[in-house]
Design a protein that fits this description.
The chain is built from 15 helices and 16 strands. The chain is of the alpha/beta class and 447 residues long. Among the domains are: 24-246, 3-Layer(aba) Sandwich (Rossmann fold); 361-441. A six-stranded mixed beta sheet has the order 6-7-8-3-9-10, with helices on both faces. The protein has a four-stranded antiparallel beta sheet with strand order 2-1-4-5, with helices on one face. A three-stranded antiparallel beta sheet has the order 11-13-12. 39% of the residues are buried.
Length: 447
């Protein structure tokens, strides 16, 4: 590494429960974030308390709708909480703070700038002189493993290399706290694993100028592989419902039974929180629904019904086998539960007798059975069908149902929920929908 003003941190402080770092970098107290709706305030975050300390990597896990990215932006000072206090290094946080850097999922590079110019951009915004700026940027590029690519443009780089530029740009300003918003999710599996390992090597060797890291992820194994503590958020609204200490030393072995057991424990915590500890959860008309295709629903039922699962599967195992992450598997499993095709207990999926029958049926019979379960278990689908039955022309505009949902959900969530039910209703021939006219009808639907 060249001699420069780019600062190298001392080795991170061990983070076992017996030796917590003394210095608190950041503290959140009773953080809430909401949006005004017709039926009152819609909370995205509710009463979140957490702290980040020197020498630790903290992971934040949660489903879509848990407010992970919103919370990260509050910590970065990019948005303000509706209520609550954020303290950074002992002082109230008011706007973006010096010493907090962020790495984004989508790289967020300037395509018209070279690697060197992209890394220099943050320093230039701080008013750092040209010579000092160049020296520090070259050192950061070397540190992150991109030496030789200083004059390349983002279009010439692979996804992994572009993300390395993102890390170099975040590190060059000598941050105290590094925030990461799903930084590996846009990368292929091997590239992501290589970048994770390189980042951990730099951290454990004390070669990065940071005191603490917070990583938002939907990958449970990634969190256990990288983090010293893992925070689990519930969804709609986001609340901190669990905190898990990870005591394993680096480097960590994913095949270690203790590692696998902790992954299983976190899956169990997350599924228990989603179901409220019960095997079934009743939907309301205004419930936010995941957008899961009927092909995926049917495919998961078939996979679980066959060998080696025979109707019961451990969620981490099925996730690894089918190459699924939390935001892929949980919505699918959740919909099976909502529709009465599965139960979720302690991180395991159990098919119901109805699902076993579904797996053996032909295409037409599956549609009929799906329609029956949809109307019985998803109130929004039943509401649409009821309105269509009662209207003389058996037609209704999309906006009628979307406006009702928007009284309870954000506009985007209302739109996504309605789109999901439209797809399910079409598959089960519960109703028809015309995308061009945005009209529901009972045309071409078997009564």
């Amino acid at each position: 590494m060249p001699n420069s003003d780019f600062k190298v941190a001392s080795a991170p402080v061990p983070t076992s429960s017996a030796a917590r770092p003394a210095e608190e970098i950041l503290n959140l107290k009773e953080i809430s974030r909401g949006f005004k709706k017709t039926q009152g305030e819609l909370l995205v975050l509710d009463g979140v308390n957490l702290s980040l300390r020197q020498g630790e990597i903290v992971g934040m896990l949660g489903r879509s709708g848990s407010g992970k990215s919103t919370l990260l932006r509050i910590i970065a000072g990019l948005i303000e909480p509706t209520t609550g206090d954020v303290t950074y290094r002992g002082k109230p946080l008011r706007g973006p703070a010096k010493g907090i850097s962020m790495v984004f999922q989508t790289f967020a590079l300037f395509p018209w700038l070279t690697v060197l110019q992209n890394v220099e951009a943050g320093l230039e915004a701080q008013g750092v002189g040209a010579v000092d700026r160049r020296t520090r940027a070259l050192a950061a590029i070397d540190l992150i493993g991109l030496d030789g690519f200083e004059n390349a443009y983002p279009r010439e780089l692979s996804g992994g290399m572009r993300q390395r530029v993102g890390f170099a740009r975040a590190l060059v300003v000598d941050p105290t706290l590094l925030l990461m918003d799903e930084p590996f999710s846009a990368l292929d599996v091997l590239t992501a694993e290589n970048l994770r390992t390189d980042l951990l090597d730099l951290w454990t060797q004390g070669r990065m100028p940071i005191k603490s890291m917070l990583i938002v992820t939907h990958n449970i194994e990634e969190a256990v592989f990288m983090c010293d503590r893992i925070l689990v958020l519930s969804s709609n609204p986001g609340r901190l419902v669990a905190e898990v200490d990870v005591s394993f030393k680096h480097p960590r072995n994913r095949l270690d039974p203790a590692f696998r057991a902790l992954v299983d424990e976190i899956y169990a915590k997350m599924t228990a929180r989603q179901t409220g500890g019960a095997t079934r959860q009743t939907l309301e008309f205004s419930s936010r629904l995941p957008h899961v295709s009927t092909n995926l629903i049917a495919g998961l039922i078939e996979a679980l019904a066959g060998a080696p699962y025979n109707g019961r599967a451990d969620m981490p195992v099925i996730a690894r086998t089918l190459h699924l992450e939390v935001d892929d598997l949980f919505p699918m499993a959740e919909m099976l539960q909502y529709l009465g095709f599965a139960e979720l207990r302690e991180g395991d999926i159990f098919l119901t007798p109805a699902a076993r029958v579904f797996a053996e049926l032909g295409t037409h019979e599956r549609k009929m059975m799906f329609a029956e379960h949809l109307l019985k278990n998803v109130p929004l689908a039943a509401r649409i069908r009821k309105v269509l039955n009662e209207r003389p022309g058996h037609r209704a505009p999309r906006v009628r149902f979307e406006q009702e949902l928007e009284d309870f959900l954000t506009d985007g969530a209302a739109e996504d929920t309605l789109d999901a039910v439209i797809n399910w209703g079409r598959y089960g021939e519960v109703f028809s929908y015309n995308d061009q006219t945005e009209l529901f009808s009972l045309e071409d639907v078997e009564s």
